[in-house]
Design a protein that fits this description.
Elements: H1 7-14, E1 25-27, E2 33-35, E3 43-47, E4 63-64, E5 68-76, E6 78-88, E7 94-102, E8 105-126, E9 130-133, E10 138-143, E11 148-156, E12 162-166, E13 173-176, E14 178-180, H2 182-196
Antiparallel strand pairs: 1-2, 1-14, 2-3, 3-11, 4-12, 5-9, 5-11, 6-8, 6-10, 7-8, 7-12, 8-13
Length: about 200
């Protein structure tokens, strides 16, 4: 039985194709470049280009869960991942927003559903290391400028995707992932390679 290729091997194979029609890149509202190859539906590549090239993040909530479980490998740089244990409670300081995806648009709808954070665990993931998250886990990630990760999603197992924002926020939000040109992505990759020398 053949084993599946490692995430590092996949990245080396697709690197020359990033930004082409089959490997489009978008600015994610959380600040990274998001690349989801059309023919590799379970692979995502994230590049943190630094604040000058990232979209404004102030309105987008950072604590969230996912549609899918995944494993992520840090290829370059470092990720600080925080996992949150939540307790639903009427007096909670945080409000849940349900996320609905419509193409490149994320629509966030506020719910009358409140929670408190009862514990947080932190892990620092450096280059050449991998971490995993289940779909139901709430987390937030911060990456150093120039960090590159590749993740492999597992089967979709969570129909309820939420983000958390302060209780006082009760209006719907809408975010669009903006397409990045081939030239801009190539320039960013070139800059990251120069930094690594």
């Amino acid at each position: 039985m053949t084993s599946s290729p490692s995430l590092s091997d996949i990245f080396q194979c697709v690197l020359p194709l990033l930004g082409t029609d089959d490997f489009p890149a978008y600015r994610h509202p959380l600040g990274f470049f998001h690349i989801s190859p059309r023919k590799l539906a379970n692979i995502r590549i994230h590049i943190w280009p630094g604040p000058s090239k990232a979209p404004p993040q102030s309105r987008f909530p950072t604590i969230h869960n996912h549609l899918f479980s995944f494993e992520s490998r840090v290829l370059v740089g470092r990720v600080l991942n925080k996992r949150y244990c939540l307790k639903s409670c009427e007096q909670g300081a945080l409000r849940r927003f349900r996320i609905k995806y419509k193409g490149e648009v994320s629509e966030l709808t506020p719910l009358e559903d409140f929670a408190s954070i009862v514990s947080v665990t932190e892990e620092e993931i450096k280059a050449s290391h991998t971490y995993s998250l289940s779909a139901e886990e709430y987390h937030s990630s911060i990456a150093d400028e120039g960090t590159v990760t590749i993740l492999r999603t597992k089967h979709t197992e969570n129909a309820n995707v939420f983000v958390l924002k302060e209780r006082s926020h009760n209006t719907s939000l809408r975010f669009t992932r903006q397409k990045i040109s081939f030239e801009e992505l190539r320039q960013t990759l070139l800059e990251l390679k120069l930094v690594l020398r």
